[in-house]
Amino acid sequence: MRIVVTGLRGFPGIQGGVETHCEELCPRIAALGGDITVTRRKPFIKESPPYTSYQSVKFKDLNAPQKSGFEAAIHTFRSVWYAYRTQADLVHIQAIGPCIAVPLAKLLGLKVVATHHGPDYDRRKWGRLARFILRAGECFAARWADEVIVISTVIQDILKKKYNRTNVHLIYNGVTRPPRTDSTDQICAWGLTPKRYILAVGRFVEEKNFDKLVSAFSQAHLPADYRLVIAGDADHESPYSKSLKAAAKAHGVVLTGMIKGSPLQELYAHAGLFVLPSSHEGLPITLLEAMSHQIPVLVSDIPANNAVGLPADCYFHYDEAHSIEELTKAIEKKVHHGVAHTYDLRRYDWDHIAQQTYAVYLQTVQREKTTEQTCV
């Protein structure tokens, strides 16, 4: 079975939740027998020379404009044409923005699987045209994709209420259980002490609310040696990312840049508290990664985070008008009086997720073959 996966920037080592999702998922699908090609966006490829494959996953690098809001859509149209030319059995489109290309894929006779990672049109960074594209992509996926995968019950409910689409596959994001990490070389290089820092991880976009986290940290009554660390960066420099970096510098926040692999795992393993103050999420992989290290977590009580089912003291009430005040009090409480929890991660196993996804592929392709045989 020949599969083309598109809608992501690419991998390995490229920042983003969808990118992390595919980096874990695609090699496992290849191991199950799928002939899988991922189309990557050339502006984000940093290897020299560029990889042509990775863990049995083939790569096809295609040009994309470096303009936020349009790069995903245009790249996906090109990827769909590539899937058609190479006679792929199906194309798997990741995220709703790229799903703007679903009608073209169907017109070309391709089978389409779409994964809805979250209502991205709710993100504050998008303008009117970008929001229209995102909503249209969601509509096209819901109405015309052969199969739709959702990563949380929240998204499942959205498709049911808005489009009356009930035949969707609930397949969660996953997390790889990390090996025990005793090394502190990397965090010491950043001037950090184990269990004496708060960690946040993600892209520098408004809905992550890292600016509010910096403000809350600066106002919280914490031990003098406690630090705040934010691991991540902006895909495209923006007024928001510039102001965030300036505020972080003013308050002594450690900015590591975008990191992956052992440095990031070391940061998670030795954090005193992981904080995710987002106003918008799908099913945050960064939260699952923090939980996999069994460290204390504190997250906003938005629907996507509530769906994870954490203990009540792991949430703070997100109110746009009072979020800094609420977050400040919650951080103080977790640092001074936090209770240790053990998180159950069984439903977030990547091997099981890959098997579920591959079963959707088989169902899609076999249905087409059965239809053809019936017609004959």
TrEMBL record:
Domain spans labelled Glycosyl transferase family: 194-335
Record-linked Pfam families: Glyco_transf_4, Glycos_transf_1
Sorted UniProt keywords: Transferase
CDD domains, A to Z: GT4_PimA-like
Domain Glycosyltransferase subfamily 4-like N-terminal: 16-175
MF terms (GO), sorted A to Z: hexosyltransferase activity
InterPro entries from the UniProt entry: Glyco_trans_1, Glyco_trans_4-like_N, Glycosyltransferase_grp1
Protein name (record): Glycosyltransferase family 1
Organism: Tannerella sp. oral taxon BU063 isolate Cell 6/7/9
